[in-house]
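Sodium:alanine symporter family protein: structure, please.
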Amino acid sequence: MSFTAQLENAFNAFANFMWSTPLVVLLVGGGIALTLYSRLRPYRYIGHSLALLRGKYSHDDDPGHVSHAQALSTALSGTLGLGNVAGVAIAISVGGPGAVFWMWVTAIVGVTTKFYTATLAVMYRGRDSEGTLRGGPMYVIREGLGRRWYPLAVLFAIAGALGTLPLFQANQFITLLREVVAQPAGWATAESHRGFDFITGAVLALLVWAVVAGRIERIGKLTVRLVPSMVLLYLGMGGIVMLAHASEIPAALGLIVSDAFSGQAAAGGAIGSVIMVGVRRGAFSNEAGIGTESMAHGAARTREPVREGIVAMTGPVIDTLIVCTCTALMILLTGVWQSGGDIEGVALTAEAVATVFPNIGIYLLLLMVALLSFSTIVTFWFYGAKCVGFLLGAHRQHWYTPVYIGLIILGAVTSLDLVNGLLIGMYAVMAIPTMVSTLLLAPKVNQAARRYFAKLASDSP
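Here you go.
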């Protein structure tokens, strides 16, 4: 076995080890503990979050860099990605329809987790080496838990810098673009493929650079326009598919629920495998408890940490309960998940769309994947840059940008089998310091929440 194959196997083994039962217990069990500890308080204020997103309580002189809506859009642009299109298809292929139910459970629990992590991201913002106010799990640990917990902050920053590299997103987008555009045009040789991948990768890199040059303010302005458009486009496409199979929707929802507790459609027929697949894919989808999105919410312009927690908790609802459910219903209603063969991931979703849009379906999906990939790559730059700035100093983080831009091109022209396990494993590593710090500091959030909601009630007419 070659050294490359050995390294690939090692990275994949690392990812499987990290995403084993203990981490699932930490994410879901920790989320359930926070839900009970909060006495379900966050769920009562979904309506208030909409008022916050409209800017009703915003003031231009509040500390921070972006509005509540821009912070949420930036966070969603990182979570709304190929996991919503391809990840759901993989979950159904491996775990059966019942895996979707456990994705829902993860999202419902994730509402509370997001409330706590985003509140802490604002409550314990810290100054970087240049004196700029920053948020994120590494600052929460440093400012909220003290210096003796500092190694945990470093662990998050290292895992965040590695886990948010753009290799996967760039590779998957360029691969789909090549299959849709280059191959039908007759570019069948290996040389023409490499040329197409390099040129399109370079164009993508230049577009990303044009956005990230404006830092979080420009990213916020882009995503607050792009994310709603992505969601509406995808839901519109899924809505037409569901309309064509409207009479079968109750049966599909029933199958999701019944299979969640029987596991008959899962590989091996074990209910445990259904739960594990659903929880893992749910965690990848909405990132509740992972910590990346806290860096976006920590940049919100507000003096009330609880307000950003209320805004952040809508993320799992949009990401998993709405968008992922749309994907799941398209796959189940069209029956493509039972077609057999080796079709999986984004190809399975594409086949579902093609049943209703036989001529333009693949192009609609390509547009969606393009928007998802671009917004995720842009947001991941922000996450990675903040992690590098925490580790090496903010005055050195500008060196991260050319490296990141170069990796977009590298991801477009090379196979990712070698590093994919490493990237997935780093996401699991990030969850450990995020959830540990959140559980330890949860009482501080509860105190702030009681004060805030009491004041909100007293101010109401």
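Notes: The chain has one domain: 3-459.
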